[in-house]
Design a protein that fits this description.
Length: 248
């Protein structure tokens, strides 16, 4: 199966919130989260990813519900493991949930989730979501203990954090690629679907191609940044072209 692209549209909403946070019902409130999703789908995106943060800094509850109703592809909800967000996920029933660590002060998701350190609470959330029809992924660093723990708690997927890969070059990047390869191989052998994301761009993506078994990449900031200059459809197509040569 060709590798899939999930387009994260959080930062389209970051722009809307910068101006309209206090006036979301204004007829001028833009850009539209739904138009962004539909443009990404029209360009060939396989899923639409959004992160409903506890502080609601970008995506709002109404955005998630609107996307659930209107998009034609799959909805992937990124979330921290809190009762409030879990209740929303159980009600909205996204196709996928990606469990992420979340800290109020961070600019973006900084590291992977410590699954091994909180197996019991995560097992409970995973089983509730999966029993409700949502496949769950664990956003983890490429660490073998975290891969094993993700399989042990019953998650069907892992998303390998590629932030360290993306932010380094040369020997340090090569070292991280080796960790990603080992994590992907172990995860696959344990029956997990392997996804990856964070910091990926059309420039660095080819260096990831030696990592086997990748099923889906979730990419946001670079695509939305490119969209400022070339439009969202073209930016999504550009990324699809960049990942198409991947051979698993
Ligand atoms: N995957 C997860 C779990 C994330 O938290 C993020 C950032 O929201 C991404 C992928 C996308 O990262 P980027 O915006 O750097 O492409």
């Amino acid at each position: 199966m060709p590798i899939h692209l999930g387009v994260n549209i959080d930062h389209v909403v970051t722009l809307r919130q910068a101006r309209y946070r206090e006036m979301l019902d204004s007829p001028n409130a833009e850009p539209s989260v739904l138009q962004a999703a539909l443009e990404a789908e029209a360009a060939g995106a396989h899923s639409i990813t959004v992160h409903l943060r506890a502080d609601r800094r970008h995506i709002q509850d109404a955005d998630v519900r609107l996307l659930r109703k209107e998009i034609a592809t799959k909805l992937n909800l990124e979330m921290g493991n809190t009762p409030e967000i879990l209740a929303i996920a159980l009600d909205v029933r996204p196709d996928f949930v990606c469990m992420v660590p979340e800290h109020r002060q961070e600019v973006t998701t900084e590291g992977g989730l410590d699954v091994a350190g909180q197996k019991e609470v995560l097992r409970d959330t995973v089983s509730k979501l999966q029993a409700n029809g949502t496949n769950v992924s664990m956003f983890i660093d490429p660490d073998l203990d975290q891969v094993r723990a993700s399989a042990e708690i019953g998650a069907r997927m892992i998303e390998l954090h590629t932030g360290t890969f993306a932010n380094h070059l040369g020997a340090e990047r090569a070292k991280e690629v080796a960790r990603l390869k080992a994590a992907a191989e172990l995860g696959h052998s344990l029956g997990l679907q392997i996804n990856a994301g964070h910091g990926l761009t059309t420039k660095n993506i080819a260096d990831l191609f030696v990592v086997p078994h990748l099923a889906e990449l979730n990419i946001g900031h670079h695509i939305v940044s490119r969209a400022v200059f070339i439009g969202l459809r073209t930016a999504v197509k550009e990324m699809l072209d960049a990942i198409t040569p991947y051979r698993g």
